[in-house]
């Protein structure tokens, strides 16, 4: 019960953030349960088969446990070298691509201290550059798609004022991602000899930058050295595919940010409306009373206007400055001038001083606004000074 009351008291942005956190954690729990159910039995079966094969080989060739582990280590380390030289320029470029795109297949890794240190600094600068670059290009792609759709609707569908909706861009993005994935899967099925399903799986894992490393292109038959065309195709697939995926992700992120921005603006408008309503209610209960103390031998004129919100305060104001203000309210206490508004001299004697104050009262007519009250006080001040001078 207290949790529900707390949620009701929170802002929409905070509720959405908390909901996303809870949903993400629940999604992790569901994923863990599903993977456990699907993969744990297969894993145990594979482990049992490997132990049986290891025991069979050791018995057949009379190999000790230590020798078998050493042979196993050599075989595992020799796998990357089947692709050719990993650290010549072509292979190094492919590795650098997997670094800044955060794919990280794990097919190759620096072994020297200098290589590891440079890899960390290179990734520290390269990953932000890569993210910004792909997001920027994806944004330009969305702009181009919106322009093409607008021209298509205007020319082919004969719409006078074509509009491209958010759903139109999402549909185009989904179709583009599907085309990239299926075409890449067909190509890698041909070049690598994988099944189409495994090729599609590799393309998806690559373009989402998960990069498990169980399937890695360019790792057979020394492809990095002998097949430059295939190397170029693999790199283009990564860059173009990540651009298309970034364009689609931009739409989702933009939608979420737009929702947050709309909620923030709505909260600001509601707060401004509440403040305005409070100000109007406060002003509607005020009454202006002008207290004239007569002539006091001072050499300055002091006028102080006080309201519920201190909207206007003027000290040591001369009569010339006051005469620039116009009284807009003459329905209360202000005399009627049949021959027009009287004029007053801007000069004032040094011995005259008037104190005008706005005092709170609860009997004010609610039909007058705050500006009327201020200007009404000024008009009465003029009339009082005229009578005093006479």
UniProtKB/TrEMBL annotation:
The lineage of its organism: Eukaryota, Metazoa, Chordata, Cephalochordata, Leptocardii. Residues 76-141, 177-253 form the Potassium channel domain. It comes from Branchiostoma lanceolatum. The keyword Membrane applies. The chain crosses the membrane at residues 18-38, 87-108, 120-149, 169-187, 199-218, 230-257. GO terms for biological process: stabilization of membrane potential. One of its GO terms (molecular function) is potassium ion leak channel activity. Its main location: membrane. InterPro entries: 2pore_dom_K_chnl, 2pore_dom_K_chnl_TASK, K_chnl_dom. It is found in: Membrane. It is a multi-pass membrane protein. It comes from the Eukaryota. The keyword Cell division does not apply. Pfam families: Ion_trans_2. GO terms for cellular component: plasma membrane. Keywords: Ion channel, Ion transport, Membrane, Potassium, Potassium channel, Potassium transport, Transmembrane, Transmembrane helix, Transport. Belongs to the two pore domain potassium channel (TC 1.A.1.8) family. This is Potassium channel subfamily K member.
């Amino acid at each position: 019960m207290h949790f529900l009351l707390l949620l009701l008291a929170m802002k929409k942005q905070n509720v959405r953030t908390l909901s996303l956190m809870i949903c993400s954690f629940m999604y992790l729990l569901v994923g863990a349960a599903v993977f456990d159910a699907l993969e744990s039995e297969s894993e145990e079966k594979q482990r049992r088969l490997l132990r049986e094969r290891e025991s069979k080989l050791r018995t057949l060739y009379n190999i000790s446990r230590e020798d078998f582990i050493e042979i196993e280590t050599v075989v595992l380390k020799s796998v990357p070298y089947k692709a050719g030289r990993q650290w010549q320029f072509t292979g190094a470029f492919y590795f650098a691509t997997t670094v800044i795109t955060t794919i990280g297949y794990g097919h190759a890794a620096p072994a020297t201290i200098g290589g590891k240190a440079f890899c960390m600094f290179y990734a520290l600068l390269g990953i932000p550059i890569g993210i910004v670059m792909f997001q920027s290009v994806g944004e330009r792609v969305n702009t181009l798609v919106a322009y093409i759709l607008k021209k298509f609707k205007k020319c082919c569908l004969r719409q006078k004022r074509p509009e491209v909706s958010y759903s139109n861009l999402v549909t185009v993005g989904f179709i583009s991602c599907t085309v990239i994935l299926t075409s890449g899967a067909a190509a890698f099925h041909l070049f690598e000899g994988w099944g189409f399903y495994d090729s599609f799986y590799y393309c998806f894992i690559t373009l989402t930058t998960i990069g498990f490393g169980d399937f890695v292109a360019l790792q057979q038959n020394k492809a990095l050295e002998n097949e430059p065309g295939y190397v170029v195709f693999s790199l283009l697939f990564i860059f173009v595919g990540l651009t298309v995926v970034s364009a689609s992700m931009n739409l989702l992120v933009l939608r979420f940010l737009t929702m947050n921005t709309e909620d923030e603006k709505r909260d600001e408008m509601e707060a401004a409306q509440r403040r305005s309503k409070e100000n109007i209610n406060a002003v509607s209960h005020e009454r202006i009373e002008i207290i004239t103390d007569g002539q006091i031998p001072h050499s300055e004129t002091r006028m102080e206007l006080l309201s519920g919100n201190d909207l206007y305060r003027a000290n040591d104001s001369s009569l010339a400055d006051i005469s620039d203000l116009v009284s807009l309210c003459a329905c209360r206490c202000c005399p009627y001038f049949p021959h027009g508004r009287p004029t007053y001299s801007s000069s004032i004697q040094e011995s005259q001083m008037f104190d005008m104050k706005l005092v709170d009262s609860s009997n004010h007519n609610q039909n007058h606004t705050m500006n009327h009250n201020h200007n009404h006080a000024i008009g009465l001040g003029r009339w009082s000074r005229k009578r005093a001078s006479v």
